[in-house]
Amino acid sequence: MEFEDHVRTRHDALLRSARRLVRDPLGAQDLLQTALLRTYRRWDRVTDKRLADAYLRRVVINTRTEWWRARRLEEVPTERLPEASVGVSSAQHADRALLTEVLGGLAPRQRSVVVLRYCEQMTTYETAATLGMAPGTVKSTLHRALVRLRQEMARSDPDAASASAVRCG
Question: Does the predicted TM-score (pTM) go above 0.85?
Fold first, then answer.
């Protein structure tokens, strides 16, 4: 399969993956474009094109991690997370905005595991293969990330603390 054909057919799904890693829609597009450019340069190295999505997701995650590390020194930690700017239109929208905000506070590795397991609905083994780690590491990283998510959500919105499941969409 040619690179252009793959991107044409999988662009929406790849953009959704990038959007779950970056809050800003334009930032997600930039992230995907950067990952696509990096992948295009190495497309001939992807011998099994059936694994192209996994390869692209890995490039997206690595790129996001690089960006996070580059900006990390510019960020100033605060005691409390800023209030989520959500309207009163629906509780689901508010929950999603809060979850997105809290996900942004996780370390890139933890965020990647949560996104792949719950948003992309990958199995533990698929997540491990995509991220290049052992399944046990995925499980322990996911456990720590979920504990932190619950704590941060309870701190930000006590009503959200009762929601124990991560829902993406």
Answer: no
